[in-house]
Protein: PilZ domain-containing protein
Organism: Teredinibacter turnerae
Amino acid sequence: MSDERRRYFRITERVGVAYELLGADGESHGRVPDQQQEQVASLLDDIEALDGQILHELEVMSGTNPQIARLVSLFNQKLERVVNHVLMDNQLVSKLAQKLQEVNISACGMGFFSDEAAAEGALLRLELTLYPDKKTLNTHGKVIACELEAGSGRYYWRVDFESMSKVHQELLIQHIVRSQSQQLKNKLKY
């Protein structure tokens, strides 16, 4: 891997980083986004079934007591808005889980700071967003070193990319070359 490392340019820049520590088996031990989507879909199905029952009861009730039927209908609409708001907040939170931070990155790995420690050899699921193009790369990584930075209480992770698709690796290489070129142009200006 050290020979491979020398073949790639390495730059320091700001990248969107989201990661999830995986177990030794390479599987997530947290909630998987697909599971969350299935749970949300199941919840929405349940809500739709309840809405059907509520509408039926409101039709029956509207003949005998239209004011109460109207009140129950308004409460149902209010509850639907709250549920929709909560679902939108959950989607926003999952998107904001990606943190924009300075990383030292190449086509074969990266280094970055984290508030938590990671064991050497730990496996990661990574989502990287490259700016300004906002290109998102999904890959796996392996922690090759994790060192506590004196005084800050933060950990510097060194991660090798594993099983990155050729397409994503090519996008990353192109991005690094463009960014390095831009950084050199900026240095020459000053």
In short: Strands lie at 11-22, 99-105, 109-114, 123-130, 135-148, 155-162.
